[in-house]
Every structure is written in C-alpha cells, then in structure tokens.
Amino acid sequence: MFVCLYIFPVYVNASENKENIYQERMHLYKTYETPFVPWHRLAAVDQYERNIQEVRKDIPKRDSAIAIQFSHEFWVGEFNPNVEDTSPFTIQYFGGNGHDGNGDGKADRNDDQDVLFTMVSYLEKFGPSEEDFKNALWEYYKNEKIINQIMTINELYKHFNTIQLDKHIFPLPVRGYNYSYKGTWGASRGWGGRRIHEGTDIFAGYGTPVLSTSYGVVEVMGWNQFGGWRVGIRDHHNTYHYYAHLAYYNKDLKVGDIVEPGTILGGVGSSGYGKEGTSGKFPPHLHYGMYKFNGRTEWAFDPYPYLVQWEKQTKQEKK
C-alpha cells in the first residue's frame, strides 16, 4: 500500500525568533548575575564580543546564545599541555580561569553556562563598583576605547532595563516637513583638502528637528570645522552616529546623556566649513554619518541603505 505524506513547511516569524533569543540571553544573564556583577555588566561584555565577531574576520564567530569566548591560555592555564582541558581540578592546578557553571563536572569553554560563570568569577575578583568594573575590563582588554564602548552598552542596558534596543527611526520627521536625500557616499569634497563624502546629506529647511535614529549615549557635542555644530552618539552595536551642520542644539542635551529613537538633538542648519560660528556656505541640510568600531579601528560606512529602510519603517508606524 502506497501512502502519500504531505509535508507542509513551517514558517518561523523572524521577529518571534529574535524575541526568543533575547529571552534566552536575559534568562542566562539573570541566572548568573551576583550582587557584585549585575546582569547588565555581563550583557554589556557579551554584546561587545558579539559586535566585534560580526565585523572581524580574524575572530571566529561563536554560534551560540552567548558570544563571550576565552582564549585557551586564559581558560586552561598558560602552561597546561592540554589546551582542550575541561577538568576543573587540572585547570585550577595550571592557573587557568575556566569554571564549571552548571554542575556537570566539566569546565567547558564551549558551554554558555560555564562561560558566563567564568566571566562572573573573573569580574568579582575586582569588586562591585563601576570603577572596579572598569579595572577588570582594563586587565582583560588593555584598550581604553573598548572599555568606553562596553561602559556605554552597560549604561544603556541598565537605564532601559532591557537588551532589546534595536529600534531605529529616520533622523528627520517624516510628516509635516519637506526633505530630500539621495545616496552621496564617496562623492568628492574639496573644502579643506581632497576627501570623499562619508555620509548622506538630507536637505531640509532651517530648524527642521533632527532626531536620534537610535538608542545611545551622547559622546560628542561641539564645533568641528567640517561638520560645524555636531552631535555624536554611540549605540550598543559599536556604531557611532554623526549628526552635522546643525543650526542649534536641544538646550537640554549634554555629553553623557542617554537618548532614544526620536529624541530631539537640534535643528537642521548650514554650519561648518570654517572657524567656529561659520554658517551659510551651503544649503541647509543634515549630514548623517555612521562609523563602526571593531575593537581596533573605526571606519565610516554608507548610511543610505539604512536611512531608506528606517524612513519606510517610520512612515508605516506613523500611519
């Protein structure tokens, strides 16, 4: 007898899958947090590691809920002849830092629970204060820029009490104001020497509100001879968002403030291309740039595709 079996495809909603991943990570962070190491510090280190794995070819991408990965030397001990050692006893004997976090008798650097417990054990050695956390990060990474990035992520997670901070919007209001833009990445610029355009120009009237596209921490405010009055915001994905040629700032905004999508940063202007206060050398517009930090260097990348996507999403939300 021939039986015909019909197999129907199962479609998994991408947003639901992402939600499940967030929940799994939060569960792990909360499980292994301690009074000395709150969940948002663990999450900040983990997110930083995830960020650099996405943009660095020389670092293997850890295919798991937790992105933190330790070197063999750190985990098993520098002089341990067995680089894949999972015995807590011999790891401790050789001065390794790997721990058994789930009670299975193994200290496995490929196990998420063992990894988180090991990171907690390391951070706890330094103490509970924010300065202690910075000292621990310095001993581990030896890089001030990395420490600042992780502290930014930590501040955002702590402030919003969540790791779900991926929402973005268009940097100008999509209703009630006229604006226009196109892809201008790589176009030549002559003022101040030969250079290329590292961003997208969005033309609009003077004073059109400039909005934060993302969650982030204000890293820079002030004058730049090229960008005029500008604001720089760092998000939890190691991305620096650059808003330039402003006419004015939001008077309530200052360096160190935490912003979210839609926070007013200032107004569109035509400042720049000269000494402080220079304005009117070009039509009013917002220069929007994006820069990525990979743990070593920072480079600009084309924001235009993101702006098109965020504009569409913002318009749909405004319906």
TrEMBL record:
Keywords, comma-separated and alphabetical: Signal
Annotated protein name in UniProt: M23 family metallopeptidase
GO MF annotation: an example: metalloendopeptidase activity
TM region(s), chain numbering: none
InterPro entries given in the database record: Cell_wall_metabolism_enzyme (IPR050570), Dup_hybrid_motif (IPR011055), Lysozyme-like_dom_sf (IPR023346), M23ase_b-sheet_dom (IPR016047)
Listed Pfam families: Peptidase_M23
Domain M23ase beta-sheet core: start-end pairs: 196-294
Entry-linked SUPFAM superfamilies: Duplicated hybrid motif, Lysozyme-like
Domain of life from the UniProt record: Bacteria
